[in-house]
Amino acid sequence: MSYYKDQILEELVQVKRPDIPELIKYLEESDFFTAPASTRYHDSEPGGLTYHSWTVFRLFKHKNGIYKLDLPGDTIRIAGLLHDACKINYYKMGKKWYKDESTNWKWAQQDVWQVEDQFPVGHGEKSVIVLQKYIALTEVEILLIRWHMSSFDAATHFYPHKFAFNDALEKCPGIVALASADWESRIVPEEGASNG
């Protein structure tokens, strides 16, 4: 199942970049519209990545308006919808052993999502790299996507990355809006994201 595939494609075709059709083709040929957004934490069902991306986009778009960030529509679409491009072809279905209470605690197997990272270069960094294979990103888009995990990115805790993160916030306050939209999307009911 793929939540909001049509809406995401409608937004992406509005992006005024010459290579956007190639990016859309890549998304449609990948598992972007069928993958989960995580193994078990949020939106961990098939199509969860699409649902998460749509929710983040809508929240980010709303925050752009209420905080008067003046980010262009293309930037909102690219960063909001594609901040987790690093998760494309990232999750695979596997098996996990567990003790089944219903069978008097006998061992059984269940299907679970597992990470199979074929290009382990980081989270935000990987999203930037994947996207730039298809479209040119602006400096602001790179900063937004690279740092959208904010303090949840392990790199922000170590020198010199913590200083780079602070410098990025100075150059691009929209990072806070995207990072908070990413975090808030986990608690937004399906119809709860703002129409902003």
At a glance:
The protein has 196 residues and is mainly alpha-helical. Helix content is 44%, strand content 10%.
| Largest sheet entry | 2 strands, antiparallel
- Overall mean pLDDT: 85
Strand-residue proportion: 5-15%
Binned, the helix content reads: 40-55%
State the strand order across the main sheet: 1-2
What does the radius of gyration come to? 18 Å
Unreliable residue runs: 192-196
What distinguishing features does this structure have?
mainly alpha; 8 helices; 196 residues
Write the layout of secondary structure elements.
Elements (H helix, E strand, L loop, with lengths): L4 H8 L7 H10 L18 H19 L6 H10 L8 E10 L5 E10 L8 H9 L6 H8 L14 H11 L2 H11 L12
Antiparallel strand pairs: 1-2
Helix pairs in contact: 3-4, 3-8, 4-6
Describe what you observe in this structure.
With 196 residues, the chain is mostly helical. It has one domain (5-90, 122-184). The protein has eight helices and two strands; from the N terminus they run H-H-H-H-E-E-H-H-H-H. The protein has a two-stranded antiparallel ribbon with strand order 1-2. Helix 3 (48-66) runs antiparallel to helix 4. It is globular. Mean pLDDT is 85; it is low at 192-196.
